[in-house]
User: What shape does this take?
Amino acid sequence: MSIARQQALKDVLERVPKHRERPHNKISAYYGENAFHLHNMREYLTDEAFKSIVEAMEKHTPLDRKVADQAATAMKEWAISRGATHYTHWFQPLTGATAEKHDSFIEPVGDGRAIERFDGSLLVQQEPDASSFPNGGIRNTFEARGYTLWDPTSPAFVVDSTLCIPTIFISYTGFALDNKMPLLKALSRIDRAATEVCQYFDKNVTKVNATLGWEQEYFLVDKSLFAARPDLQMTGRALFGAPPAKGQQLDDHYFGSIPARATAFMKEFEYEAHRLGIPVTTRHNEVAPNQFECAPVFEEANLANDHNLQLMEIMEKVARKHDFRVLLHEKPFPGLNGSGKHNNWSLGTNTGVNLLKPGNTPKTNMRFLTFFVNTLAALHKRADVVRASIASVGNDHRLGANEAPPAIISAFIGSQLSTLLDELEASIGAGALTPDDKTALKLEIGRIPEALLDNTDRNRTSPFAFTGNKFELRAVGSTANCAVPMTVLNTIVAEQLEAFKVAVDARMEAGDKKDEAILKELQLLITQSKAIRFEGNGYSEEWRLEAERRGLANLRTTPDALEVLMRPDVVKMFEDLNVLRPEEVHARVEVDLEAYILKRQIEYRVLMNMARSVIMPAAIKYQNGLVSNIQGVTSVLGEAAGELTAAQRSLLQTAGQLVQDLHRVANDLESVHDAAEAQESALLKAKAYAHEVMPKLEALAGICSEMERVVDDAIWPLPKFAELLFTR
Ligand code: ADP
Ligand code: MG
Assistant: This one.
């Protein structure tokens, strides 16, 4: 056993849970104390300034300078009272992570003293020296000007001693360089589109918020074991490893009791989350050993997303305090369950109605059906764009694998709603509705809540499932910034709702009554979008074939999926809906392809290094041991030793063959890698990595895993999966 592996195991066995004292047992006593929410903002502001800010938040209008100054002063005073000495504009560059640059509040006043200063101009706008953030060519480095602009809809917060101000990040010329700005635009578009459609049912609806409740999955690994695996350290995932004798086959981890060290970690990160006003509420084990999940109460989508990004940062920090490393990668251990981030999504009105929740009158159910069917129609029309929105290096390993939705996007709605849609489709004829038709339909629609109550199907294999009062997009990867899929989902539904409104209005102008116009349009959409509905096992081979017959896209790798975004009709959709300009779409694809290539490059280098300088020497050492054993036995027993060295010879054969294979496949991998690197365009290079390099890389990883099974455990240099996942 290598010294690192030995030491790591020793470390882990000596660890004890680190319980942190909390000042109060009641969560409500400290909930939100580190976020500048409305209620604490009010304390620091005049009524007038407070009203202006609330209005700017609701209407997304710019703040006037005087109010901005007041807001800044209020924020500074509050932050200092929370122990802040610095502030930062917190933003979401296209790398997917978050970024910040800290400045202190201090301003020297010339006589050797300093004062704390922070005014409206510093709050509202900053110019981070950000030429090194990826921008897909939008902002040339020679004019390295990007601005961060305050997003007053998401509360500022204090972490350690820094006031973090949520901002968007744009170029000098106004192009979005981040993930927040397009999300805000998509949210504002769906607000408008959904509010207009709501007017058919209720004139009091003046605002519709998209809501998001994410479920974050992750693994915990002891920090010493983590440090002894260069692949985990550099790529976030174990590139190879033999499956442990006990994996997840007993299904005993899910909802099992949480190990004590993990519990101590969870309690602390939940405490920090609650202090920031992040409403985390659920914690449980996941399917794989040492895999867990946490979920909050849902919130307005932009806020929910900021909270998810904050939580991921908190988890990483707190994990270190507990001698853990948190693995957010989508597939940290080949052969075991991967991690996702289910995005539960719905639409809520200012009147307190969830538009995807069936009501108890025919009218409210018509409204439900309208939003439900339009969402399905949007998904049908834009399934491949949704697929593109969840594309990432890590997610490529997860989609279609163990317990993960397939790369084919489809929707599961349950047998009862399926039957209902089928009946509706059949019962609305082409001509005008007779009074009898109408009565029958009303009865049908009236039955919806009943139908849903006993809708107990829980299809876990679907990437997009209706779960009674919301849709759950399950294909999102665990590292993802939800802003990307949420931008797409809200954009495509807005697009569909706008088209729906135009069509219904046209029918009404042609003489149809409102109900009839809506029903007929819904019928059309039900028929058109049928292919996206799938109730069966999404993991099965039959579904892959069936999806192909239905003409649904099956985009298995990130570069294939990203290509969809460059299609003219997709570029036009983003432009027409005022979410992304064509330059912005292309820049995003460029950045994502680049990220894909760089991450694959790193995986390639790490694996080659490990294969040649860690695994190969271990295997040769093992062979040497066998050779000297055979020689020794033979020198003592002479000719008679033949039979008594047969086993050793056979082991030597196996190890020898693996060494040859490793050498050969590593050389092959090197040449396909060099060929990929020679590609000029980012798209072709990324595709070469996906289709040429990755199969060879997996083959080499497979040989390394096989070596682990063969080589003497005493000289195996790396922590094995069983150690990474079961030592606590
Ligand atoms: P599950 O059975 O999938 O665990 P839950 O009711 O526990 O369902 O909800 C899972 C997630 O869905 C939670 O994060 C929850 O806040 C979120 N959720 C519930 N209602 C909504 C909604 N209307 N909009 C968005 N998310 C929601
Ligand atoms: Mg769920």
